[in-house]
Amino acid sequence: MAHPFFLLFIGVLATSTSVIFIRLSQTDAVLLAGYRSLFAGLILLPFFIKALRKHKHDYKGSFFFRSLIPGLFLAVHFAIFNIGARLTPAANSTLIINMLPIITPFLFYAILREFINRAEIYGTILSLAGLVVLGVTDYRIDSRHGAGDIICFVSLIFYAFYLVLGRKNRDIVSIWLYVVPLYLTAGITTILVLFIGNESGLTDVPIFCFYTLYEFLLILALALIPTVIGHTIINYSLKYLRAQSVSIIILSQFIFAGVLGYVFLNEIPNYAFYIASTLIVIGALIVIITARPSHTKMG
């Protein structure tokens, strides 16, 4: 089991870089989300074709369609998170995403009928208190930060659904047969929505335009590191590790983001960040430690 945990740790480190690339990029936030997903799907397409040939006797047509709904959730998460990440410090946006262990137990019960106990509810309340401390303090310091925190929290809801569905779809015979249609769905849907918005006059985002080499490299890095590496590893881990085990490793993400934000964006977290971090981590640990063992078959 050591290998899957180590692999997951690498994936979490990779995903923590996303906020840096998002903040450095000048591309429209929603379009950036679309390109990120589309490029990731295209990069991994050869792996999908290879896996399809290997598992042609085990692959069911329904597997492809089971990637579509989580792909839509991922599309909305990426788009909303991109907007929020540009309004709040890197450490804050990533810290909010790390509330996943607090929300997912409720979704696991609603979707997979996994039990939620009283201690998990207490952990949720404590961790939500951390978010309140962070949001209220940021709003007083800079109202843009408070708005960014709220937007990132909304994106967290979609991210949580996306991960729960990833856990539910762990029986798909190959990770490539799941994540490639998922990324392509997210990318194509996002760009299609922007195209319709442009045609109807609701948006004015140049979808097909020329970018500088620097901007292209940022988009490519966003697709490669946090998406192809990070999200693929997290989805792979959901096949073999308990969901709460995945969540506790994901908690380390805000530490990486805080360091990267300081190094690349010269952002020094204020005192509220440390208070909120402590409350959220304690709340998450209560959820994880007291969680009942999964009775579902792994593998």
Can you walk me through this structure?
With 299 residues, the protein is mostly helical. It has one domain (2-290). It contains 14 helices and no strands. The chain has helices at residues 2-15, 18-24, 29-54, 61-65, 68-85, 90-97, 100-112, 118-141, 143-168, 175-200, 213-240, 243-250, 253-265, 271-290. α1 runs antiparallel to α11 and α7 runs antiparallel to α12. The radius of gyration is 19 Å and the shape is globular. The protein starts with a helix and ends in a 9-residue tail after the last helix. The model is unreliable at 291-299 (pLDDT under 50).
Q: Calculate the terminal CA-CA distance, rounded to whole Å.
A: 12 Å
By DSSP, the count of extended strands is 0
Specify the biggest β-sheet: none
Q: Can you count the helices?
A: 14
Helix content: over 70%
Strand residues, percent: under 5%
How many separate domains?
1
H and E string:
HHHHHHHHHHHHHH
Which descriptor suits the 3D outline?
Answer: globular
What's this model, at a glance?
By secondary structure, this protein is an all-alpha fold. The protein has one domain.
List the helices and strands and how they pair.
Blueprint lengths: L1 H14 L2 H7 L4 H26 L6 H5 L2 H18 L4 H8 L2 H13 L5 H24 L1 H26 L6 H26 L12 H28 L2 H8 L2 H13 L5 H20 L9
Give me some keywords for this one.
mainly alpha, disordered C terminus, 14 helices
